Amino acid sequence: MKTFRMTFFRTLITLTLACCLALPRPQTADAHGGERPEKKGVLLVAFGTSVKGADEAYRHIEELARLALPGVDVRMAWSSRFIRRKLDGEHLPHPPSPAEALARMMEEDFTHVAVQSLQTVPGEEFDDVRETARRFSGMPKGMALVETGAPLLSSPEDLERVADALIASLPKERKADQAVVLVGHGTKHPANVYYAGLQYALWKRDGMVFVGTVEGSPTRDDVLRELKVKGVKKVWLMPLLAVAGDHAHNDMTGDNPDSWTSVLGKAGIECVPVLKGTGDNDALAAIWVDHLKAAFARLK
Ligand code: CO
User: Fold this and answer.
1) What is the CA(54)–ligand 1 centre distance, in A?
2) Rounded Cα gap, residues 207 and 110, in angstroms
């Protein structure tokens, strides 16, 4: 009986080892030293929006990410609790939080996940996304590795590429004496310097393209001063935001006396708003996707 048991277990161990070795995919050890097949996935993390239809811009990036990484599961999460609760109140569906999405992927046996930020600059929101990803990376019985992809503007190369893409997508109807004002979010975070960096990169290409922000610098007053110096009479207002959401509809444009269109209008400057997010733009979306591909390549 003892010999039979020994032989049985020896055969079992041999078979298990043989099975593990025969599996074609690389293996990841679980907490008990067993092996799990490698399963790579992608999680895109956007801020989120409650403006109906504005999330098309996020879905545009999502589609391009799927095309860039065929066969890879690409999911979406929204980092804004405020937006998610607002949609809950209206009984509208929305993507889960980043932590919720990662926990679900952990439960579905993903071993490697690339988390791609859909932010514009590496500010506070990005810090949070990266920190959440870091805490899931190597969690017991969870993902072996979680890597984070950089926002749109994260390097000097990005500044040049984003400037080229923006210049290439300015409204065709715009005349040479008309200005274009790109309205970004802005932040108190040091990453706000990217807006000034982008302004410089744009001025090297077109002296009549300006960058302004809603909550950082350059401020609207900074932009207005420049417009007056250049004697501008008409501007095209475009969001430097992934989606044309609340800030585009209620701060950049809109009837309220404090909107950019109202304030610039009062200064005698005619405004033509273009309500399209940067996520809608193929060349800009491609930069986010390239950052994702770089993060995905680090999943080893
Ligand atoms: Co905001």
Assistant:
1) 15
2) 48
Q: What is the CA radius of gyration of the chain?
A: 24
pLDDT at residue 56 is higher than 90: yes
CA 79 – ligand 1 centroid, Å: 12
Whole-structure pTM value: 0.88
Conformation bin of residue 95: beta by default, left when phi > 0, alpha when psi is -120 to 50: beta
* Among 185, 189, 247, 249, the one annotated catalytic: 185
CA 187 – ligand 1 centroid, Å:
9
114-151 pLDDT tens trace: 999 999 999 999 999 999 999 999 999 999 999 999 99
Task: Provide, for the chain, the percentages of residues in helix, strand and coil under a 3-state DSSP scheme, each rounded to the nearest 5.
Answer: 45, 15, 35
Residue in the block written with tokens 């401020």: 219
Residue 249 appears among annotated catalytic residues: no
| Ligand 1 center to 35 CA (angstroms) | 44
Cβ atoms of 203 and 259 closer than 8 Å: no
- List the structure tokens of 268: 């005698």
Q: How far is the CA of 185 from the centre of ligand 1 (A)?
A: 6
Please give the helix or strand (H or E) that residue 103 lies within, else none. helix 98-107
